[in-house]
Amino acid sequence: MKSQKLSTFVAFILLLALSTSCSNDISEGPASDFCNKLQILAGPDSALTNLTLDNSQLVNQTIADLLELASEAPSSISKETQAVAFLYEDILSKIVSVSPSQRTTELRKFQAELDEVTTSARALELYGETECGLNFISPFETSNTTVPQANED
Fold first, then answer.
1. pLDDT tens, 47-59?
2. I want to staple 85 with a disulfide (CB 3.0 to 4.6 A). Which of 54, 70, 95, 145 is the partner?
3. Terminal Cα-to-Cα distance of the chain (whole angstroms)
4. Which element (helix H / strand E) includes 113?
5. Is the pLDDT of residue 109 over 60?
């Protein structure tokens, strides 16, 4: 069960940067491909949204999707998108390379980097809202989603 809780935690952290309910109002022009990719990545069917650490195919697809997004970012948001993508690549690569019992410890080692990338994640969110017409939903807003209880085994 701890592995499942950690998977949920990691997915939650990743979704802090990219959780979204997207409108179809995507701007035309050079940023539209990036906006389309951002919308797909944050959508309900993406590998990121459905990420579990015990599914290496989803982990690898999530990493590939994030790196592709970073490689296609417009110059105005490129640095921030790369910071988010590269950090999550490092986190996911490390966490899946250790045993499930070590994942929480390894994730904690990234806390400082997670704190630092918050500004970049917020800039990416703002870009998505202003340039792509996406509506990002705060993970702290009330929703109908049931959150699993953390029970120590």
1. 888 888 888 888 9
2. 70
3. 8
4. helix 111-132
5. yes
